[in-house]
Amino acid sequence: MDIIKANNITKRFTNHTALDNVTVNIPEGSIYGLLGPNGAGKTTLIRIINHITAPDSGEVWFDGHRLQADDVAHIGYLPEERGLYKKMRVGDQALFFAKLKGLKTKEAVAELKIWFERFGIMDWWNKKVEELSKGMAQKVQFIVTVLHRPKLLIFDEPFSGFDPINAELLKQEILRLRDEGATVIFSTHNMESVEALCDNFSLINRSHNILSGNVAEVRRRMGHNNYRLSFQGNPADLIAALDGKILSHTITEPVRDSGGVTYSGEFKLSPDTDMRQFLRSALDSVDLVSFDRALPSMNDIFIKAVEAANAGHPLE
Questions:
Q1: Is the N or C terminus of the chain more exposed, i.e. has fewer CB atoms within 10 Å?
Q2: pLDDT in tens, 11-30
Q3: How far is residue 241's CA from residue 188's CA, in Å, rounded to a whole number?
Q4: Whole-angstrom Cα distance, residue 3 to residue 12?
């Protein structure tokens, strides 16, 4: 079941179309990456899903019914532009937001202390918000976003400003929330995080959805007939043996160690070349160290898809 169905969404502002007939379906219980360059329309779509603004045309369905104002109680939204009241004490600030989300004081304090301990910020409960580092302030805002256990969580660049250790902590918490039943919409420019976290994604560019799908399936599809070899021997002999079997290749600088000189290369096979033919030719010309499929990174896919769409030749 899809928790969000955004069908044919169009949103225009003065002299600018933010979204043009965009459709996005987000499966329940998944982590969904909403990707795209700055100004592509991602934030506008997030605001529409969060009922902050309305589309000019199209409709959004939430959990099986047309999105309505009351549904916001089941959505947690952490925007990229964050803000806390600097003069308030951290615990009072968190409690204030928890009560706005409908939690009773006793319940909110108990839940907040569990989260503060988990994030290692319990010692800051009675300090003022203005004393927090950026990372600690972001932890507080993350906590108050998820505290009421909403069905849908929307995170806009959640890792911005975090060091690697705390970024990993946040990733594990997002995965845990997913495993406990929450659906997560995850907007980011960090493609490594998309590969690590997201089940599915949509790539928005210039107000259009130019590519959607399952992360692993799209990587496999776009990496079709691409292979990576590590080998010892003469690269020229390998290329000669593969003549007519490959469309392109790249070979990196050699690595020299006690085991000899090892090269690595990526090869795109011709459509009529069988992988076993390719491998036999390689084995006849050099000593293979390793062989595997060369899947493109999400960063490579992002760049390729955006460039193709901007050139008027969107990827299929």
A1: C
A2: 999 888 999 999 999 999 99
A3: 43
A4: 25
